[in-house]
Amino acid sequence: MSDYGSTPPPPPPSYGAQGAQGAAPPNYLVWAILTTIFCCLPLGVISIVFSAQVNSKWALGDVAGAQESSAKAKKFAIWSAIASAILVVLSVVFVIVLSVVGYNLDTGNDFGY
After folding, report:
1. Which residue has the higher pLDDT, 79 or 13?
2. Which pLDDT value is given to residue 65?
3. Do the Cβ atoms of 69 and 54 come closer than 8 Å?
4. 6 φ/ψ angles, rounded to the nearest 5 degrees
């Protein structure tokens, strides 16, 4: 008789269970989706990619990789929101400047020169 098959297979990994490493790091998926929809699209998509990697890396036991992906997802979501805020401020300034210049061109006022 062969010795093959007499040893039991290893137990399956417990996906999503809290092991010795504690709870999984946050994946920031909601923030990533919201910043993709309402803010800067390219940075938001990158944030979604990294947030999707967090749970899969955690389930595979790659704690450092899951933490790194979590930090990157957060970073890109924040940068997406900041980029959007900067674009909104620049747009408002641009509209104000155009309206002032347009008003002065319509009235013939050339700022006193």
Report:
1. 79
2. 97
3. yes
4. -80, -20
13 vs 6, 10, 51, 56, 60, CA distance in Å? Answer: 21, 9, 22, 12, 8
Length of the chain: 113
- Residue 71 CA to residue 42 CA, distance in Å, equals 18
Q: Give the tens place of pLDDT for each residue, 9-39.
A: 655 555 544 555 689 999 999 999 999 999 8
Helices and strands counted in the chain (H then E):
3, 0
80: Cα separation from own chain's centroid: 7
Q: How far apart are CA 21 and CA 84, in angstroms?
A: 36
pLDDT reported for residue 63: 96
Provide the 3-class DSSP secondary structure of residue 27.
coil
